Amino acid sequence: MFSRHRTVLLFLVVLACVRPLSAQQKGQYVPGQYGLNAGAIPDPGFTYANLTLNYSAGQLNNSNGNAVPGITGTYSFWVNENLFYYVPKHKFLGAYYFPYIVIPVANGSLVADIVGTNLSANGGGQGLADIYVQPINLGWHLKRADVAIGYGFTAPTGRFTPGASTNVGSGYWGNDITTNTTVYLTKNKATTVNLATVWEIHGQKSGTNITPGQAFSDEWGVGQIVPLKKDFTRLLQLGVIGYDQWQVTANSGTTQNFPYYSSHAVGFQANFILPAKAINTFFKYEDEFSAKARPEGRVLVFGFSWTLRIPKPQPPPSAAPAAAPAKR
Q1: 3 state SS of 21
Q2: According to the 3-state scheme, what is the secondary structure of 222-284?
Q3: How far is residue 62's CA from residue 287's CA, in Å, rounded to a whole number?
Q4: Each residue's pLDDT tens digit, 163-182
Q5: Best exposed site among 156, 211, 248, 301 by fewest CB in 10 Å?
Q6: Domain architecture of the chain: domains with CATH
Q7: Where does residue 65 fall: left (phi above 0), alpha (psi -120 to 50 degrees), or beta otherwise?
């Protein structure tokens, strides 16, 4: 039932003709990565997960959360993430150690028209985006909860040139402090509440004097597992999920006076789980109901995770062994 994901695609709006929102310095973390099972820890072994995320918006909001008049168009991107985890069998400081790496490939587009002028903006890029590495990640199985804390960094491996319209990278290093928690409300662990948090600290953008402000994101969810077969070999998990994101410190450099951005969304998640095969497939949809100094849109996510368990779990005995024949 493991589902933990992270993307590092740069999320910017570049509208040079709109001064209060031009080149808004959005952070590197794109919400929509977590939801149900936010604190789940993979079984010992190797885990591969694939996640496809789409963000699309048709409205650009000002710092008051209202649509900027005179601007029409669309902003969207797709990102496909490949995640690789390794969990040793032995614990460290009483916790499971599970570092991971995310290799994302992105494709974005921006089409904007400024009503009443002859100006327009078109842009987008595709290719390898910024790689994310979490070398420190510790998780604990508690009696009624799973909890994890970690540190990760974003490497600016995606293509970035100041002012270019084909960027797919952020152009700067990032450092993240993360927490993940799943609380089991019922003894059989079928009902859960979940919370993931990410605190972003950003470096200076290459070729500029700009350092984006720090940001804080949380993703939450409340879920219920329903067995599809009486032997619990097929499970359906449904729940309500959402996210919140805020810029918490000012930018430095030429964008230091730009307004702080924020966004809030709510939606749902559905998981189809095959516990014996260690396979989890998922679908998520979240719609933003509030956004300031940035676009207001929606997030669509789908994918799967699979674990090669090491050591391989032994199946429970189907019956007691037959008694050995008596010796003569």
Answers
A1: helix
A2: EEEEEECCCCCCCEEEEEEEEEEEEECCCCECCCCCCCCCEEEEEEEEEEEEEHHHCEEEEEE
A3: 18
A4: 887 888 899 999 999 999 99
A5: 248
A6: 19-309 (2.40.128.130)
A7: left
